[in-house]
Specification:
heterodimer, A: alpha/beta, eight-stranded mixed β-sheet, 12 helices, B: alpha+beta, two-stranded antiparallel ribbon
Amino acid sequence: MTGKVLTITSGKGGVGKTTTTANIAVALAAMGDKVVCIDGDIGLRNLDVVMGLENRIVYDLVDVVEGRARLRQAMIKDKRLPELHLIPAAQTRDKAAVSPSDMIRICNELRPDFDWIMIDSPAGIERGFRNSIAAADQVLIVTNPEVSAVRDADRIIGLIEAEEKGPGHLILNRVKMDMVKRGDMLSTEDVLDILAIPLIGVVPEDEGILVSTNRGTPAAMDDHNRAGQAYRDIARRLRGEEVPFMPLDDNKGFFQKLAARFARSGG
Amino acid sequence: MANFFDRLFGRDTSSSAQAAKERLQFVLIHDRTDISPAVMEQLKDEIIAVISKHVDINRAGVEINLSQTARENRLVANIPLVTAPSGGRKRTRGTR
């Protein structure tokens, strides 16, 4: 087994990097791939709570780097999905506790035992980001259809290309189809026109994501969640399958849409 | 016609999404190249100075823009020449 290092990054914070990492990891593990996630956000760890594994942390990434624990000791095995693992970040340290060469060394140690080594990058373009892309074989850039997120994604794409890790693949997250139709939200086509990198996923805005995060059960574990379905599709594309992009229309019927339209023009 | 369909489907050209796209395209060209509008103006003045040393140009018609195709950016200069009356009438011609 020669694991592939997949880094999830965005530039801007709050666009859904951690949610995306957790959900793609769950989807890949549910398909039988061996997956280990590394939380790259040292000092502001969150992948543990999003994955629902926060109560099982003993050692973290910095303990491994500084030799207090072996890699296997810091690795938490998810009891729900036997192929899923997490190496949490340290909460009381900062990004400088880890270097890009530490990350390369750790990833090389993990490669023989896993299909996927997924790194959840922190926001920003500084040390934490540099650490997160140092070992990357493939980079996924998460953005939202709004000007600030797209601008930051463009900057990140430039930096990834400069590091010769490019061009990266785009995940457009939190798309509200009714707003796109009204002309009040950038469409997938608009964002692709601007960023000009290959698309690997479009994830609709879905309240179920917050609910699943509340419980620490990533939405991709729920067969009926639409955002979860979008993440499962991304996982299949990462595995090399050709998966058509699902229509993002809301589930409302024709008459409901018509009624909504009249309600708007009347108001 | 496209406009009619755009409006029919609620995506008229004055929509906020369209405004977002245009503003992003403008700001990203400058982000990507690290060339500010002020530097562009200076470039324009200096290009005009250099070219006018050798040929007559229509200074008012000079246009210098950054353009982009996919992830490639280029500087495009459009400099109209004032061609000398070599047995013909004087005319202005654009060159790229």
